[in-house]
């Protein structure tokens, strides 16, 4: 067994690892990369992995940064927004209260067929000269200062690599996180049951009510959304896949999990028949493709990047929560930081300062994302709380996080240092709003259903924030200041809307920012 020298070894050939390899190659074509993956390619198109839904940052990363736009348009489904349904309904599905959009905002997102995408990346990378050792088991890993040794075994073959860079993209195996004792608790308790069925579930067929059908600008397109059925302490996802399969997940806090009694697929169906019989009926008789139960899924990481030439990305590093589908966003963020570090290191630059600063940036993004979930699951069945929460969270996400990524400011240290005071201001505003939401969530409210539609597309500030992301040349400092002004204006309106004695009156200033959204929320 001879030792093979490489610039980079990536442990894990899933979405995080292969997209990182492609991003590095796009910027530094001469780099020498080996990927070690436990599964054998090609994998099944409908593979048992979470992370099928993308939002704007992840979608932008895959289609624009990695230049996979044509593949996504051909092989994956265009997502029809995020859509939430509230209440406990046994009659017609149109009786649920609905939170979503009547029309799409401009930045596209997708429902990903994970196996299809990973097979495509495998073919693309191997054509570019990347050495992918699949069906392999990792052995000993010895870390040094830009001199790492990695052993693996593929069938009867054994390999030994020496690499300047080692990146752990092997998911919840947590190779480096365990080896270096980097695990950090988040204080967020979340549990998930997820499964896929060999059947296309079209929720548009769950009601024939014409008024309900015509709420959306393109009737019959709701099934393309990431659809959610909401309840106190839980939510259910329904995600369509291009293969014709449908992904389901039930995500619960500890109290909701204990109350549900879910341990198996039979338990899951019994719970659905009681809580959401319309959904249960749609699943009956379909082929079960896979089933998993995961408890305590949330964890953090003390260090993501090192000047000694190692890094973590994807779920190998940290994971907050699946609501809002942030997994691909954090792949995009981590991979971009890692790519910048490797690029600068291979040019002979000192990366000690950058590795520390990039982790601080990452940690701030992760902490703020975690705040969207921590102590809030109790309010997930509360129509009023969630209608306020989603507009605020979109405002923060598009106005801050997405703005930084779309302009590639996150890799520009000078720009990030310049705008740090404003970023700290946005964090303070977000923390204030999340505390208000957490307080209401303690009550675990479920309001009587009224078949109302809370249309986020009609909220002026959301359209404005999304449109900015389409502009090629943005003055990030001025734009961030403008977005902060929006956040400062909407926060007191949202605080009032969360109170039990909220007024239905709308000022002209509020109407200019939020339209008539208050009226639908308080209906």
Characterization of this structure:
- This protein is an alpha/beta fold and 523 residues long.
- It folds into three domains: 1-76 and 112-183 and 302-378, FAD/NAD(P)-binding domain (3-Layer(bba) Sandwich), CATH 3.50.50.60; 189-297, 2-Layer Sandwich (Alpha-Beta Plaits), CATH 3.30.70; 381-523, no CATH class.
- 41% of the residues lie in helices and 20% in strands.
- The protein has 17 helices and 20 strands.
- Strands 1, 2, 7, 8, 9, 10, 18 and 19 form an eight-stranded mixed β-sheet that branches. Strands 16-12-15-14-13-4-5-20 form an eight-stranded mixed β-sheet.
- Helix 1 links the parallel strand 1 and strand 2 (33-36).
- Helix 2 (56-65) crosses helix 10.
Task: Quickly describe the structure.
With 523 residues, the chain is of the alpha/beta class. It has three domains: 1-76 and 112-183 and 302-378, FAD/NAD(P)-binding domain (3-Layer(bba) Sandwich), CATH 3.50.50.60; 189-297, Alpha-Beta Plaits; 381-523, no CATH class. The chain has helices spanning 15-27, 56-65, 69-75, 114-127, 175-179, 210-213, 254-260, 265-275, 277-283, 327-346, 352-370, 383-406, 413-441, 460-468, 476-498, 508-514, 517-521, and strands at 3-11, 33-36, 77-78, 82-86, 97-100, 110-111, 131-133, 136-142, 148-154, 157-168, 183-184, 191-197, 226-231, 234-240, 246-252, 288-295, 300-301, 305-306, 310-312, 453-455.
Secondary structure topology:
Blueprint: E1 3-11, H1 15-27, E2 33-36, H2 56-65, H3 69-75, E3 77-78, E4 82-86, E5 97-100, E6 110-111, H4 114-127, E7 131-133, E8 136-142, E9 148-154, E10 157-168, H5 175-179, E11 183-184, E12 191-197, H6 210-213, E13 226-231, E14 234-240, E15 246-252, H7 254-260, H8 265-275, H9 277-283, E16 288-295, E17 300-301, E18 305-306, E19 310-312, H10 327-346, H11 352-370, H12 383-406, H13 413-441, E20 453-455, H14 460-468, H15 476-498, H16 508-514, H17 517-521
Parallel strand pairs: 1-2, 1-10, 2-7, 4-13, 5-20, 10-19
Antiparallel strand pairs: 3-6, 4-5, 8-9, 9-10, 11-17, 12-15, 12-16, 13-14, 14-15, 18-19
Helix pairs in contact: 1-4, 1-10, 2-10, 8-9, 10-11, 12-13, 12-14, 12-15, 13-15
């Amino acid at each position: 067994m001879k030792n093979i020298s490489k610039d980079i070894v990536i442990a894990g050939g899933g979405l995080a690892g292969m997209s990182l390899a492609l991003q590095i190659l796009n910027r530094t074509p001469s780099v020498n990369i080996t990927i070690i993956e436990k599964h054998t390619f090609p994998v099944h198109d409908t593979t048992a992995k979470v992370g099928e839904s993308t939002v704007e940052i992840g979608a932008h990363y895959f289609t624009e940064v990695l230049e996979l736009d044509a593949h996504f348009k051909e092989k994956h489904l265009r997502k029809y927004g995020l859509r939430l349904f509230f209440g406990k309904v046994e009659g017609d599905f149109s009786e649920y209260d609905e939170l979503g959009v009547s029309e799409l905002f401009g930045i596209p997102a997708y429902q990903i067929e994970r196996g299809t995408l990973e097979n495509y990346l495998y073919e693309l990378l191997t054509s570019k000269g990347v050495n992918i050792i699949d069906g392999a088991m990792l052995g000993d890993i010895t870390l040094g200062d830009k001199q790492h040794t990695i052993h693996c075994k593929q069938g009867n073959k054994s390999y030994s690599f020496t690499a300047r860079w080692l990146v752990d993209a092997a998911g919840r195996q947590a190779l480096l996180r365990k080896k270096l004792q980097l695990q950090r608790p988040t204080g967020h308790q979340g549990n998930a049951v997820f499964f896929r069925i060999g059947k296309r579930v079209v929720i548009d067929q769950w009601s024939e009510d014409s008024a309900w059908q015509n709420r959306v600008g393109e009737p019959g397109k709701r099934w393309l959304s990431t659809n959610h059925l909401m309840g106190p302490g839980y939510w259910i996802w329904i995600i369509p896949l291009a293969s014709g399969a449908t992904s389901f997940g039930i995500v619960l806090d500890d109290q909701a999990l204990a109350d549900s009694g879910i341990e198996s697929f039979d338990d899951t169906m019994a719970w659905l028949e009681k809580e959401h019989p319309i959904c249960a009926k749609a699943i009956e008789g379909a082929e079960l493709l896979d089933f998993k139960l995961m408890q305590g899924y949330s964890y953090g990481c003390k260090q993501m990047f090192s000047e000694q030439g190692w890094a973590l990305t994807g779920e190998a590093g940290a994971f907050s929560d699946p609501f809002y589908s942030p997994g691909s966003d954090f792949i995009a963020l981590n991979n971009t930081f890692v790519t910048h570090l490797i690029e600068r290191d291979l040019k002979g630059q000192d990366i000690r300062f950058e590795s520390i600063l990039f982790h601080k940036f990452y940690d701030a993004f992760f902490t703020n994302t975690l705040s969207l979930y921590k102590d809030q699951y109790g309010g997930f069945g509360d129509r009023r709380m969630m209608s306020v929460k989603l507009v605020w969270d979109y405002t923060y996400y598009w106005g801050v996080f997405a703005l930084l990524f779309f302009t590639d400011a996150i890799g520009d240290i000078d720009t990030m240092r310049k705008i740090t005071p404003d970023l700290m201001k946005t964090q303070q505003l977000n923390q204030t709003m999340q505390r208000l939401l957490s307080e209401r969530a303690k009550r675990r409210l479920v309001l009587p259903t009224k078949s109302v539609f809370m249309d986020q597309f009609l909220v002026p500030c959301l359209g404005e924030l999304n449109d900015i992301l389409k502009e090629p040349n943005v003055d990030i400092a001025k734009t961030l200041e403008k977005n902060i002004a929006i956040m400062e204006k909407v926060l007191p309106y949202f605080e009032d809307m969360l109170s039990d004695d909220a007024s239905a009156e709308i000022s002209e200033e509020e109407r200019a920012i939020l339209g008539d959204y208050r009226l639908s929320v308080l209906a």
